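Backbone geometry:

***
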Amino acid sequence: MATSILRKKPIKDVLAQGAEDGDDRGRLRRRLGSVDLMGFGVGIVIGTGIFTLTGVEARDTAGPGVVISFAIGGVVALLAAFCYAELASSVPTAGSAYTYAYATLGELAAWIIGWDLLLEFALGAAVIARGWSGYLADLVGLPSAWFSEDGSVVNVGAMAIVVLLGVVAITGIRESARLTNVLVLVKVAVCVLVVAAGLFFVKTANLTPFIPPARQPDASEGGLARPLTQAIFGMEPSVFGFAGVLTAAAVVFFAYTGFEAVANLSEETRRPRRDLPLGLIGTLVISTVLYIGVSLVVVGMVKYTDIDAGAPIASAFRAVGAGWAAALVSIAAVAGLTSGILVDLVAMGRIGFAVSRDGLIPPAIAKIHPRFGTPYRITAIMVVVVALLAGFVPLSALADLVSIGTLFAFVIVSVAVPILRRTRPELKRPFRVPFSPVLPIVSALACLYLMTNLSMETWLRFLVWMVLGGIIYFGYGRRRNRLARREQAAESGAAGADPERAGSESTDPEPTTAG
């Protein structure tokens, strides 16, 4: 068992699956450029985080210091993006962190990270869908019984948008890219307008003190809701102060989750070795600048104690008498959340495609649509799962799971960079992380530290999900995946079967069911 869970996927197999030439059967189609990748990246990053988390964390945890929290989150995400850029440009194939882990850390680590990524994107899409439903209801006056987060038993609006965008995701990657780029242009333009207009209403008094002094939290914020660091080191529970800024940084990191979806599009990028680094790093730079600017304007327009946690930006403009800007913000929120859901659905399809193609889940799920060129079966399955979650489960308490899942993936990717440089020094690397292995190690440690600032209940939920994934792996994937079948074929050949046939099967870059 120890040998099987540590077996690694040969790099030549990874490169063969993502080859730019040859037979298209079982492969995704290359239709995206660097602008498309940045569109997808900004489309998923700028969304729920800026439209909701800004108000919640400013009011309850960090005060105006939430601006520093967004900056810290952006720096940590950028460090991880450098690591993603090196791996994605060197090994351009679907699956991103899952595939990198398979090639460097072994099969069990790959399964864990693939399972973790499915959690991240599924919950992220469901949370965003419920937020989208609420914003739309507020914008056009829809009935709260079917669209409100608090007032509905079944959130019909959330389910409807997931199904609609699921159809777009299945129809084709190019169609998804076009819709995403349009929505991104709308919300980026409005975010720039928010910063430009909001600067005229910023008051210095609202920014003082920039980091409010630490204080004891309310009684309801104790217990499992405490950050893990406070529980481990026996620290007194507190909010605000610099500890509050760090806690808020771990939470608002949710706002940066999803940029790694760009790496999942490696196999559909026309020139992945050039365009992937541009797409990844460009996404983070644009998003971080906008986040810092918008959060600074919000806490400067309204005293942090008076911020509306539900719609912080729109309510801030209403408070200063700029109702026209509030309406534009609501429109941008709807556009931003729409693109976020779409990119999540696209990313889940690609991750599931990579895991299924390797046989860790049934290979038939990796079927590529003959006309659309998309992994339609796994995408359809995930659309159903997300629609049910979005319709029936209030996910506000589970939003932190998206952060912990993403940070865990970033740790794996950061560790994979120096390992792959040592084990495969001859591999062509169009983009190289500067100051390796120092920067990847700093990236991994920074992600781990932010993880420890999340609550204990988040850690417990994460562990439950990982245990469930372990049951699936040891019950199915460990014995039935492609590498396991190769080993069985090789053993059969050594026992008397045709060794030439066994050897050819062991180097076949594509599974017979992938197409």
Observations:
- The two ends are 30 Å apart (CA to CA).
